[in-house]
Hints:
By secondary structure, chain A is of the alpha/beta class. Helix content of chain A is 36%, strand content 18%.
Amino acid sequence: MNQRIPVVEKILNANDRLAAENRRLLDEHGVFAINLMASPGAGKTSLIEQTVPRLAAELRLAVVDGDIATSLDADRAAAAGAIAVQINTGGDCHLDAVMLQQALAQLDLRAVDLLIVENVGNLVCPASFALGTHLSVLVASVPEGDDKPYKYPGMYRGVEALVINKIDLLPYVPFRMDYFRQGVELLNPGLRTFPLSCRTGEGLEAWLDWLRGETRRRQGEHR
Amino acid sequence: MNQRIPVVEKILNANDRLAAENRRLLDEHGVFAINLMASPGAGKTSLIEQTVPRLAAELRLAVVDGDIATSLDADRAAAAGAIAVQINTGGDCHLDAVMLQQALAQLDLRAVDLLIVENVGNLVCPASFALGTHLSVLVASVPEGDDKPYKYPGMYRGVEALVINKIDLLPYVPFRMDYFRQGVELLNPGLRTFPLSCRTGEGLEAWLDWLRGETRRRQGEHR
């Protein structure tokens, strides 16, 4: 006689449940959302500053800025022309789905095509907390050094696109692009990568094209 | 009649207790220890590489390297001539006093004058966990940007010295030293600061002098 074996379904943790709710809300309103993560100073805010005005004629953009303190980043996003909401984490080292839920409530999602969520500057903790965004994007930067994929594998493994910022500094720092890319390829084979410089504008077009394409594609799926 | 009011002493949490034990152990052996913290890629390991050979004739150095994965940093510290112990945090975003306790057990502390503990690259979490070291040192770096004190106040507030690394990149990045220092001064008035470049060697002497002096002074106190 076969014994019945009880099967316990995987229960989503509280954060994952809320992340799923956030996703539903975004999809209902046709908002495509990305979770932008990076070390402090890699250039998340600079990338937003360069992205917003270049896409403003085609897409309605909103930015949710997570920071431990200050609204410096949200101020910069707003100055660049985005609808901006600031989340002060009050010391927390990452955003979570609750914080994004509260931020989404501040936005008129019907008036948004693309939402960029700027996470807290941290290469470790944000990787463990789903927000409900559609894609995660990591901003690396050349002066951080070429060993970062090897040292922060969790972050490099969990993203769907990688921006390599500050390529204008390549002549001035020891950074072996081959070694860096080899580490990325090991952790995240075929990862879509955008080497660029927010300062000079070099390489921005490929990033913008991808963002445009992904936004339109996702919106098509949910309309 | 006066009522007797019970007074409950502040009880140290588990981490703080262990940190106090680590401190006692270090003091017993005349070891001066610093906790080196920074963003990923600010140059903690580079600073260790530059420091170790320059002090090797005068001080016996050991390095404890905290990393999420790999022993890349400990390998570099050992190659520079230090006794090196690697802590793999297994994903954790900071070192804590237990991890340091385990690392100290791997060292012959009688043969160490100066111990440098290289924390996980993270501007948030390490600030909340005492290790038992004598001083905390933050390594900032010019390409991270001049807004970092304002955005990571907890870290800037809690350290006893600040290294500003990669000053050789000042001509190539937008970094207002005045604005940066103003933020530091607000959070941590009079903080001892060492602008330097691990790449060119500029400014290293002041840092080395301070480290020599602090080590000798602390050892004098405990002998």
